[in-house]
Amino acid sequence: MIVFVYDKTFDGLLTAVFDAYSRKTFPDMLLSEGDSLPLFYSDMHRVITDEEKATRVWKGLQKKVSSSALGCLTQSWLSELPEVGMLLFRYIRKAIDTPRSIETNFADPDVLQLAHIWKKVDGERVHLLQFVRFQKAADGTFFAAFEPQFNALPLTIQHFKDRFADQKWIIYDMKRRYGFYYDLQEVTEVSFNDDSREAHLITGMLDESLMDKDEKLFQQLWKTYFKAICIKERLNPRKHKQDMPVRYWKYLTEKQNFSSPSSKK
Questions:
Q1: Could you tell me which residue ranges the DUF4130 domain spans (predicted)?
Q2: For all residues of the chain together, what is the average pLDDT?
Q3: d(Cα 250, Cα 244) in Å, to the nearest integer?
Q4: Same domain, 113 and 146
Q5: What is the number of domains present in the chain?
């Protein structure tokens, strides 16, 4: 068994592909730094991420598959699934070695699995566009938090930059402890210390002391509207949970107990 160890980055994965072709040995297993090695293996190669090597592999892929297939690769990487690294490695190797494009060959199990993963990540992207709820802070910045199943936040940033170009905002992934800040000109990745005691970095909801003076009123109006359009006779809890995943509820204004903005009920 041949094992490659890399830094669990996309550039690191592309570097692993470059190294494999240079060494003429291809891994049976991809591990990240700190993972335990298997009990039996014949060769172990430690991949040192190299931007130039990664770029050469990417440019080679651009000649073999379409831009949509390349997008599928990068978007599937954001799934963070344990098997996605090795899956992408096999896909890239097949794309390079096969004379014809493999991207629509769904008889290939790797192509089919990658398509399924892409669909799941894209579904999470759509959920973020639907369910992000901004809260206006006293300084005029709009704050939103959520915990997506997949790391889909980067896929939504251009939308929010275009849609809310005239206001400052922070969108924060509570699960991965990072987000993006827009200052009316540029979008910057931000991350707060894990030991931060700020309530909104724990609950995802602004404390009333940090809210804009009209924010509480707007939240109440939104909750009232949400209740007004709800037809009790047509309630379907199962369908409701399918359309609005439960993992988003504690960050949705309409799902909060308004008497306590930080409530997760």
A1: 83-254
A2: 88
A3: 12
A4: no
A5: 2
Q: What is the amino acid identity at position 129? A: L
Q: Alpha-carbon distance 215 to 139, whole Å?
A: 12
Structural domain contains residue 263: no
Distances (CA, A) of 262 to 22, 90, 108, 215, 245: 55, 45, 48, 14, 19
Type of residue found at 232: K
Q: Tens digit of pLDDT for each residue in 19-36?
A: 999 999 999 999 998 888
The answer as to whether 62 is a domain residue is yes
Do 144 and 248 have their domain in common? yes
Helix (H, G, I), strand (E, B) or coil at 22: helix
Q: Is position 262 within any domain?
A: no
Q: Are strands 135-136 and 142-146 parallel, antiparallel or unpaired?
A: antiparallel
Dist CA 234 CA 180 (whole Å): 38
Cα–Cα distance for residue pair 10/79, rounded to 1 Å: 12
Which helix or strand (DSSP H or E) is residue 136 part of? strand 135-136
162 within a domain of the structure (yes/no): yes
For residue 262, the model assigns a pLDDT of: 39
- Both 185 and 210 in a single domain? yes
Q: Are residues 119 and 157 in the same domain?
A: no
What pTM, to 2 d.p., does this model score?
0.82
Q: How far is CA 132 from the centre of its chain?
A: 14
pLDDT value for 195: 58
Print the domain residue range for 49.
2-124
Residue 222's pLDDT is what?
66
